[in-house]
Design goal:
Blueprint: H1 11-34, H2 36-41, H3 43-67, H4 72-99, H5 108-127, H6 133-162, E1 185-186, E2 189-190
Antiparallel strand pairs: 1-2
Helix pairs in contact: 1-3, 3-4, 3-6, 4-5, 5-6
Length: about 190
């Protein structure tokens, strides 16, 4: 693990990861734009759209930070900040959902630990102990998978509703034969 605190050997990987994240960010913007009417009707979907957008843009910025010639201590601090901001946003959003009387979705309970890995990665770079850039890479790849899963789940739920597979009260219709990844909020109602 002697490369855990040397940024040079990671250049090509982060050039590829940053480009991939940038392409996904563009696709996510287009997808959200197309579905903005549905997203606007649901506080849960608004939060999910914001969170996915924040996470994927954070990855582009993180890749740029890793590629910027600098000390690993500075990089560690720079990587901690967006992860902490995101965690605080999620906590604030979760409190708002509960105050609105809605059932809390399960996604934040996975997103928070995922971003805690980012904080741990930043601290590891600052302290020069632990996984260093390996942890940064683990978080990066996990967030890409998480955002793609979130986008797929949202569009699957939207398609099921559009096809009449989810009734307006959120229960599966007689046409639905399963296949849902999660129960979600539709039109401001949790299901």
């Amino acid at each position: 693990m002697h490369n855990a605190y040397q940024l040079g050997p990671w250049h090509d990987l982060y050039a590829m990861l940053g480009g991939s994240a940038a392409a996904l960010a563009g696709l996510l913007f287009v997808a959200v734009s197309i579905q903005i009417g549905r997203i606007a009707k649901s506080p849960i979907f608004r939060a999910r759209a914001w969170a996915n957008t924040f996470l994927i843009v954070m990855l582009v910025v993180n890749a740029a930070l890793v590629l910027t010639p600098q000390d690993t201590t500075a990089l560690g601090v720079e990587l901690c900040v967006p992860a902490i901001v995101f965690i605080l946003f999620l906590i604030r959003t979760m409190v708002g959902v509960l105050r609105a009387g809605l059932r809390l979705p399960w996604r934040p309970f996975f997103s928070i630990p995922l971003n805690l890995v980012g904080v741990a990665a930043g601290v590891s770079l600052i302290m020069r102990r632990g996984g260093g850039i390996y942890l940064v890479t683990l978080e990066f790849i996990a967030i890409i998978v998480w955002v793609m899963f979130g986008a797929w789940d949202y569009f699957w739920q939207s398609a099921r509703k559009a096809l009449g597979l989810i009734r307006f009260d959120g229960r599966p219709s007689s046409l639905d034969h399963g296949g849902s990844f999660s129960r979600c909020a539709i039109d401001g109602q949790t299901h």
